[in-house]
Design brief:
The complex is a heterodimer of chains A (81) and B (218). Chain A is an alpha+beta fold and 81 residues long. Chain A has 2 helices and 4 strands. Chain A has one domain (9-75). Chain A has a 3-stranded antiparallel beta sheet with strand order 2-4-3, with helices on one face. The mean pLDDT of chain A is 84. Chain B has 2 domains: 2-102, Phosphorylase Kinase, domain 1; 106-217, Transferase(Phosphotransferase), domain 1 (Orthogonal Bundle). Chain B has helices at residues 2-28, 66-78, 109-113, 125-141, 200-217; strands at residues 34-35, 39-43, 49-54, 86-91, 97-102, 106-108, 144-145, 154-159, 162-167, 174-175. The chains are: A alpha+beta (81), B alpha+beta (218). The A-B interface holds A 1-8, 10-11, 36-40, 50-54, 73-76 and B 9, 11-18, 22, 44, 46-49, 67, 70, 74, 85-93, 95, 100, 102. Strand 1 (4-7) of chain A pairs antiparallel with strand 4 (86-91) of chain B, so a sheet runs across the interface.
């Protein structure tokens, strides 16, 4: 038996929408998932060491320069040394 | 194709290690949110998500596959039922099953019954149970039955000053169509086994009666 993961498609949609909004507004700072998952973070164009969900990059986002999207928990974020 | 398959498997290992280590850490600290018939729920400190590890505390009855449980929660949300937003399911190679989902910051009716928590300020029993009934009616209209609606599976969530019910644990839930009895345990077709799940509406009435009694004694 192999390990198997299934992600709620709604989570993928929420994250993609959030990245789209982020790119449109050009806002700075942490890119967070909206409530009720506000303690989860979205990183784009970075390869984190650990993460909760890998979000597929849509064609539209790819054209905007997005290469990768990951959803991280606060534990996945590297603390400054 | 091979590259994407490799990547997929690598991602799975990351998930597995992440979740395993997080659960172990919480276990070591003896911190978990609660335990029901179908699972043990662990929190991640103050994070907005939690992990349910599938266990079977009710061997007389079968449980939904963890993926089916997530799908039922997704469907219930579409019907207008407030449930924890599921994030993902994980089945490990050694047979463990996890559901990662939104953490509900609230208390259960059972906690109040057992004196572990108090009623929120401005708790209105009529309004609260009316909402529970409406949510159950929406599920039933869509042929979905909870089938384990005890007081531990109804939570109170205080948001924006309003007290709202949240329905949790869809481990026994099932769709039922036509003339089938939605409360019959259908997965143990052995002779003499005629187990039935408790009826959702009767459970709501029973819980409301007990809560009314507690409130009148206050």
């Amino acid at each position: 038996m192999e390990n198997k993961i299934k992600v709620n498609p709604e989570i993928i949609n929420i994250a993609q929408d959030k990245v789209r909004e982020y790119l449109e507004n050009g806002s700075k700072g942490a890119l967070m998932m909206p409530p009720p998952l506000e303690s989860l973070y979205i990183v784009i164009n970075e390869e984190p060491e650990s993460f909760l969900v890998e979000v597929p990059v849509s064609n539209e986002l790819e054209k905007s320069g997005v290469k990768s999207i990951y959803i991280l928990t606060s534990r996945d974020i590297k603390k400054p040394a | 194709m091979k590259e994407s398959l490799k990547l997929y498997q690598e991602i799975e290992q990351s998930y597995l290690e992440k979740i395993k280590s997080s659960i172990e850490k919480i276990r070591q600290n003896q911190k978990f949110l609660g335990e029901g018939k179908s699972g043990r729920v662990y929190s991640f400190e103050e994070e907005s998500f939690c992990i349910k590890e599938r266990i079977n505390n009710n061997p007389e009855f079968s449980f939904n596959d963890i993926e089916s449980e997530m799908e039922i929660q997704i469907e219930a949300t579409k019907y207008g039922v407030r449930v924890p937003l599921p994030i993902l399911t994980l089945k490990t190679a050694n047979g463990k099953k996890f559901l990662v989902m939104e953490r509900i910051f609230g208390t259960s009716i059972q906690d109040i019954e057992e004196g572990k928590a108090d009623f929120p300020i401005d708790f209105n029993i009529e309004e609260f149970f009316k909402e529970v009934k409406v949510m159950m009616a929406k599920m039933h209209e869509n042929n979905l039955y909870h089938r384990d609606l005890h007081s531990g599976n109804i939570m109170l969530e205080v948001k924006d000053g309003k007290i709202k019910p949240v329905i949790i644990d869809f481990g026994h839930s099932s769709y039922s169509y036509g003339e089938d009895d939605p409360y019959m345990e259908e997965n143990f077709p052995r002779i003499g086994h005629n187990k039935k799940f408790p009826k959702d509406d009767l459970e709501i009435k029973s819980i409301k009666d007990r809560i009314t009694l507690i409130l009148t004694k206050k």
